[in-house]
Amino acid sequence: MRFSLPLVLLPAAGALLWIGNPGPQDFADFAGRELSERGIQEFCRDGVLPLMMNLMVDNCPRLFRDQREALGDLALQLSQRRNFGFFSLYKTEVGASGLLAQLPLPRYSLETLAVAGQFIVLRAESVD
Q: pTM for this one?
């Protein structure tokens, strides 16, 4: 019996995708990095923070980077994971419910694809 190369590679590729499907802790690490860097871009520019905050915050980028783990844990709590074995989809709602709904934060909805050890933001939009 002779096997075709694509038929042999297909199960191997499937197994690699299954093994490489990032889990929730990987998502928390990714989200923490992304949120801290986006926070730096958004808030650590001149004139963005009120004067009193500038006096209290000595190093704005360090403040956000020091919060990576907490931001990642928060993102994980605000996300729903749909695991399809070979890949996962994460849907994150920020500022929509719970404690964050009481804070004056913009509401965002994000969808992230987790596949082969990578995360790809498929959709990120502000919800009015």
A: 0.75
Per-position b or e across 71-80, b if 16+ CB within 10 A of its CB: bbebbbebbe
In DSSP terms, 94 is beta-bridged to 108
Question: Coil, strand or helix: which one is 86?
Answer: coil
The rounded radius of gyration (Å) of the Cα atoms in the chain is 19
For tokens 């004056």, name the residue: 104
pLDDT, tens digit, for every residue of 1-11?
565 656 666 66
Residue type for position 109: S
The tens digit of pLDDT for each residue in 49-103 reads 666 566 666 788 888 899 999 999 999 999 999 999 889 999 998 765 554 555 5
List Cα–Cα distances, 91 to 63, 85, 128, in angstroms: 26, 17, 17
Total count of domains within the chain: 1
Domain extent, residue 38, equals 5-127
